[in-house]
Design goal:
The chain is of the alpha+beta class and 459 residues long. It is built from 20 helices and ten strands. The strands form three sheets. The chain has a four-stranded mixed beta sheet, with no helix packed on it. A four-stranded antiparallel beta sheet has the order 6-7-3-8, sandwiched between helices. It has a two-stranded antiparallel ribbon with strand order 9-10. The N and C termini lie far apart (55 Å).
């Protein structure tokens, strides 16, 4: 029997005997007041969490997501072998309500917009597996009850859909946006407020206790474990679902007021017809978020403004008869900065290696930002990337004799090759010269596997 089959058999075991006895010895389920739209209010959710197919899917997802080890150093690759040996006892602790997660490991990464560092909390591989199993059970019950205007971290929904919805509101005449930014949202979520929302939907005391234990597991930072009295650490599978649950209160309030809005995680945009209406909405939402959810609006990053002056999920919108989707200036600046890093001459790699790295980055970037409606911008980026690569090769050839030989070998006439090789002009200026455009044509770069971010070049 293969290792994967053994793991699946172990995950399937333990459903009878000692595990069920342990569950039976647990305390009586806590009473709950499930909302009518919440079919998950059950006192047997933990059995669903430990169900074989759910566990198989959770293990598959955790392995696919990869990720760094937690505080115990266990890698995702080592997790299946660990489960084969220890799952029966782990299952007993889950069913009896005695499972204890480990503290998360603090990791800081730069924010995409360059505005400081984002703190992540990396759970252990085992805790990620358990969180994923809980997530799958809760999400299929909770997600259908969430607002149609919420798009972040939800099955079948995407950032592109959120951007398109925002565009439709602008096109319909709602040409002022209330751009809400919540200050350190994931770090400041009140555990008591969040758990009160969970308890309305979950009647299984063991699941409630488990979720609370994930929130309060602590953080290992600089060799010391600190307590976590608030916040849902970014990095765990459950955090996005819990954030959607808490911010569902905001969604319902916006719907109650009859407002047109789009929310993606903690990024919310409300679209109105006038600046005056926007200021009223902003004031009302600040009071609601502070008073009911104990959340704070980031004054520096929030505003009532025209949509073309704000960015939403990396896009902005042209204020024309048709509100076209455009790539936000900051997103373009980050793209160029990354391309400059990847095409540095000092990297000491071949052009084939460089294009291999570029291909991975450009394919992912085009998959997201290709959603814009400004192909001319994408075409200009393609030209700029090819010029960067021509500069790289020109500098690699170094000496005039080598440059002459490379140019003539690639079909450039001897006279043109000689004048270009002996030119005193900079590499950037020569990168669009007739000689380099012929020797290092668009077709040449395509033959090396360089993808295009825009319309395919002809030559």
């Amino acid at each position: 029997m293969g290792a994967q089959q053994k793991t699946q058999r172990v995950l399937d075991s333990g459903g009878k005997g000692e595990a069920l006895k342990a569950a039976d010895r647990g305390a009586e389920p806590m009473s709950a007041n499930p909302e009518s739209e919440s079919p998950s209010a059950s006192d047997r959710l933990m059995e669903d969490v430990c169900e074989r197919e759910n566990l198989k899917q959770a293990l598959k997802r955790v392995k696919a997501n990869k990720g760094a080890p937690g505080v115990d150093g266990m890698t995702v690759q080592a997790l299946p072998a660990y489960l084969r040996e220890h799952w029966p006892s782990i299952r007993v602790t889950l069913l009896s309500g005695t499972y204890r997660p480990q503290p998360v490991r603090r990791v800081e990464i730069p924010k995409p917009d360059g505005g400081g560092m984002r703190k992540l909390g990396i759970p252990s591989a085992l805790d990620r597996f358990v969180q994923q199993a809980v997530l799958q059970v809760l999400q299929k019950r909770w997600d259908p009850t969430f607002s149609d205007s919420s798009y972040g971290f939800r099955p079948g929904r995407s950032a592109h859909q959120a951007v398109a919805k925002a565009q439709s509101y602008i096109q319909s005449g709602y040409r002022w946006v209330v751009d809400l930014d919540l200050e350190k949202f994931f770090d400041r979520v009140s555990h008591d407020i969040l758990m009160s929302r969970v308890a309305k939907r979950v009647g299984d005391r063991r699941v409630l206790k488990l979720i609370r234990s994930f929130l309060t597991a602590g953080v290992l930072e600089n060799g010391l474990v600190g307590a976590t009295d608030e916040g849902t650490p970014q990095g765990g599978p459950l955090s996005p679902l819990l954030s959607n649950l808490l911010l569902d209160d905001l969604d319902r309030e916006l719907e109650r007021r009859g407002l047109r809005f789009v929310r993606y995680a903690d990024d919310s945009n409300v679209y109105v017809r006038s600046e005056r209406a926007g200021q009223r909405v902003m004031a009302g939402l600040k009071a609601f978020l502070t008073g009911k959810l104990k959340l704070k609006v980031n004054e520096a990053k929030s505003a009532v403004a025209r949509p073309h002056t704000r960015k939403f999920l990396g896009f902005t919108f042209a204020m024309q008869a048709h509100a076209k989707r455009r790539i936000a200036p900051k997103a373009l600046a980050r793209f160029k900065e990354r391309i400059r890093e990847l095409t540095k001459r000092s990297r000491g790699i071949s052009v084939d290696q460089m294009i291999g790295t570029l291909k991975r980055y450009l394919t992912g970037w085009r998959g997201y930002f290709g959603f814009c409606e400004t192909p001319r911008v994408l075409h200009q980026l393609d030209e700029w990337i090819r010029r960067r690569l021509r500069c790289f090769l020109w500098k690699q050839w170094k000496r005039g004799r080598t440059r002459f030989r490379e140019l003539t070998a690639r079909g450039v006439s001897r006279n043109l090759a000689a004048s270009t090789a002996g030119s005193s002009h900079s590499a950037w200026r020569l990168s669009c010269s007739p000689a380099l455009s012929k020797a290092l044509s668009n077709r040449y770069f395509r033959s090396l596997g360089l993808p295009s971010v825009g319309p395919s070049p002809i030559n």
